[in-house]
Structure formats: C-alpha cells, structure tokens
C-alpha cells in the first residue's frame, strides 16, 4: 500500500508553499494578532480565488471535485503558515457536514456559496465548561425555532452559517442549519487562549433552523464529522510542528557560542532529534489518516485518533523546544505563532 502523495499533489504543495510564503509570512500573521480584526480578509479572498475552499465540493455544486488527499496537502501548508483565516471552520466542518448530511436542496443552496467564499460556515457544539454529550446539551429546536447558546464557537463571530448540534428527546441529538444573520441570533466575540482565530458566544432566541440529516442521528453524525475533521486538523498541526523544527534547526546552525554553532552541542542535538522523531511519527500517522479519510475506510475512527493525538503531541513538543533552542525570552513574540500550537 502506497501512502505517498502523487506528483500532482506534491506540485500543489509547492504552489501552496510559495503562495503562503508571500501572503502569510510570520510577520503578516503577527500583524493580524496585533490588530483587532478577526482574520486576514485579503488572504481569505486570495485563498477563495485559488479554489481551495472548493477542493472537495463536487463540480455539480460549483466545486473542483478533487479528493481529500489534496485537501490534506492544503491543510498541512495552511498549518505550516498558521494562516489566520476561517478555512478550517468553513471547509473541514460546515462544508463537510452539508456534503455528508444535507438534502439535495440544501446542497444546491449552500455548497456553491461555500465554494466561492460568498458565505463562511462554522460548527457550534460546546455550551461552556464540561464534556459535550447528548444528554447534556441544552440548545433545542421547537417548531423550527432554535433556543439556547453555544460557546466558544470558533469563527462564530465572522461566519454566515452555523451547523448547530442540539438536544433531541433526552438521549438523542440533532444537527441544524442556522443563518447567523437571521432573526433571533446574537453573537458576542470572546477571547480564548488561541489568538490565531476568533471565537464567539452565540445565543439563539427563536432563530429559524433547518434540520440537517436524521433527527435522531445527530450524535452519530457529529462523531463521524469529528473523525473526518480530526485528520485535517492533524495535518495542520504537522505543518506547524515542521515549521517550528525548521526554525529551530536554522537558528541552531547559524547561532555561534564558544566559537562554534550551537547545533554542535549535544544537548541541542538531543532536543532536535526528539522534535524530529515526534514530527515524523505524527506525519506517518497522518498519512494513514489521509488514506482512511479518502477511502472512507472502516479504520477511519482509529486512524483519525492516532493522527490527532500524535500531531498534537508533536506540535507541542516542537513549539516548546523551538523556544528553548532560541534561548532568549525576548524572541518570544517573534516565534509566538509556533509557541501556542493552537490547532
């Protein structure tokens, strides 16, 4: 079984790297973090113009009809640059939910607009502290109107459309589509530990809602959607981990102490070896996850968990050691995008 990406997919990777080096450099990312804007709108529009938001949407619905392997390539490069856009919320979650569970009418109505960036989607699940479970959800829909609140909702302050997980008959859950510009919706931006993407507290007070999928199967739909998104988020984390490793290596090779590069010191060699091992293991698991995602294989839940856990650990390890290898805390803000390991 071949887990390598094809020549065309690697060409897409090179093109994405070149584009993001120019339009999403660390300096540009920090500029967004320093500002009050929720995301880089110019970068988002350029990404839309490249067709990345349409990657896996079928051509009949205005998309490119490519495979999930191409989307995994793009996810890794977006993670490498930490591009401050609502790409993951809109593409990995909202678009995927409609693709998987929407009716033909819903697909026709929303997918072309998501593909061309006319609207941004988000996914609203959490309701504050505590683990999400069907019996603990309080958001509900009565007579087609939604009541309740969700927080935090990633990109909920900038999205136009939300996929909302709600309470249904005690032990069940349902998914609904909600227009965030409609009546009965209130959004308040909130701060989180992750400044690279915006979050919101979204309140529904009689907001019109349309069922997505089976009314009694919302929880199963949610879990399946999370498995698929987990692989893509893991690729973002591997991209970030690799960027942190590359930065640490470059600095260690050019920084001299006691007359020689600090990369020659055994302690730093061990650190970078550990970073390399963590990133390589995570990449291997992500490749397995990419295959399972693209093939919709029965192994997807396990493959997604392996990819997500190892990628999270790798990003944390590489970001942490990147700061240690740079020594001086004065460089913290310079490297901050790769310290937070946000995704």
TrEMBL record:
It holds the Pfam family Acyl-CoA_dh_N. Transmembrane segments: none annotated. Keywords: FAD, Flavoprotein, Oxidoreductase. Residues 217-331 form the Acyl-CoA dehydrogenase/oxidase C-terminal domain. Its cofactor is FAD. SUPFAM superfamilies: Acyl-CoA dehydrogenase C-terminal domain-like, Acyl-CoA dehydrogenase NM domain-like. Gene3D superfamilies: Acyl-CoA dehydrogenase/oxidase, N-terminal domain, Butyryl-CoA Dehydrogenase, subunit A, domain 2, Butyryl-CoA Dehydrogenase, subunit A, domain 3. The keyword Metal-binding does not apply. GO terms for molecular function: acyl-CoA dehydrogenase activity; flavin adenine dinucleotide binding. Residues 6-118 form the Acyl-CoA dehydrogenase/oxidase N-terminal domain. The keyword Flavoprotein applies. Belongs to the acyl-CoA dehydrogenase family. This is Acyl-CoA dehydrogenase. It comes from Candidatus Entotheonella gemina.
């Amino acid at each position: 079984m071949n887990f390598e990406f094809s020549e065309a997919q690697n060409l897409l990777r090179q093109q994405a790297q070149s584009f993001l080096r120019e339009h999403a450099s660390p300096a540009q990312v920090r500029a967004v973090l320093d500002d009050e804007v929720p995301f880089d709108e110019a970068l988002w529009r350029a990404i839309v113009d490249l067709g990345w938001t349409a990657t896996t949407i079928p051509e009949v619905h205005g998309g490119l009809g490519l495979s999930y392997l191409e989307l995994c390539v793009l996810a890794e490069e977006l993670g490498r640059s930490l591009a401050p856009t609502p790409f993951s919320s809109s593409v990995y979650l909202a678009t995927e939910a409609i693709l998987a569970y929407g009716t033909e009418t819903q697909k026709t109505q929303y997918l072309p607009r998501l593909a061309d960036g006319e609207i941004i989607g988000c996914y609203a699940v959490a309701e504050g502290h505590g683990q999400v479970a069907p019996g603990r959800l309080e958001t509900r829909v009565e007579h087609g109107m939604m009541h309740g609140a969700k927080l935090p909702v990633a990109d909920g302050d900038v999205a136009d459309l939300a996929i909302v997980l709600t309470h249904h008959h005690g032990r069940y859950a349902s998914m609904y589509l909600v227009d965030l510009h409609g009546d009965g919706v209130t959004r308040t931006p909130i701060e989180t530990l992750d400044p690279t993407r915006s979050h919101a507290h979204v309140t529904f007070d009689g907001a019109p809602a349309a069922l997505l999928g089976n009314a009694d199967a919302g929880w199963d739909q949610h879990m399946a959607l999370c498995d698929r998104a987990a692989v893509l988020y893991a690729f973002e984390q591997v991209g970030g981990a690799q960027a942190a490793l590359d930065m640490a290596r470059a600095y260690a090779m050019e920084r001299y102490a006691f007359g020689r590069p600090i990369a020659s010191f055994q302690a730093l060699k061990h650190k970078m070896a550990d970073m390399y091992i963590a990133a390589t293991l995570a990449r291997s698991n992500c490749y397995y996850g990419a295959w399972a995602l693209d093939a919709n294989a029965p192994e997807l839940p396990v493959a997604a968990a392996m990819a997500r856990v190892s990628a999270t650990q790798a990003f944390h390890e590489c970001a942490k050691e990147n700061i240690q290898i740079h020594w001086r805390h004065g460089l913290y803000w310079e490297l901050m995008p790769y310290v937070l390991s946000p995704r």
